[in-house]
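sorry for the late reply, my laptop died twice this morning and i had to redo everyting from scratch. anyway the thing you sent over, i finally got around to it. pasting the sequence first so we're on the same page, its 179 residues, then the predicted structure underneath. double check i copied it right bc i was rushing
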Amino acid sequence: MKHYYYAGEDMSSDQHSHKHHDDNKTIKINCGGERPERETAAFRAVSSEVQRIDEADTFYKVLFQEEQFDFGNNYNANNSTFVPRRSGVYYVAGTVTFVPDAQELAYRVRVEIRVNGVSVAADNDYWGEFSPFVNAVNVNTVLQLEGGDLVEIFVTSTTPGRLTENAPSFSTRFEAAEF
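ok and here's the structure:
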């Protein structure tokens, strides 16, 4: 079992923590106590590597290895998971650029935002044969999240292909900000 600790070992008496469990990991979040000033919670992470989508109609967790910024320490690049430290309303978005292996086939790509393993927002695009463009699919929503929720991006396609790394002409990114 993997353990991810987002909080220091020393928590003061006015702080508490939440734990989330699933089959493969335990995540401990220091939710903080009373604070006179509110800390900004926002992050943006991008994919720094090509990710294969080898099986059609199978969901894959999208990996965003490169953290561009993380105000509030809410994002874990090791497992591409956003874990808000406190309850609140958040804007969450995920974008993937998909390139099919066989460009002569029509296909569909679906991207989902999942909270604690449950799809809460999704979008999909359909592309016909011989498109000269790559397919960038974006999903975004405003969510009321609890401190310690696990927020992830998943993708599926009706054809094998690859997700591109983030680059000036391609966009594969994950971002969130608290209101």
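The CA atoms of residues 62 and 139 lie 13 Å apart.
thats about all i looked at so far, will dig more tmrw
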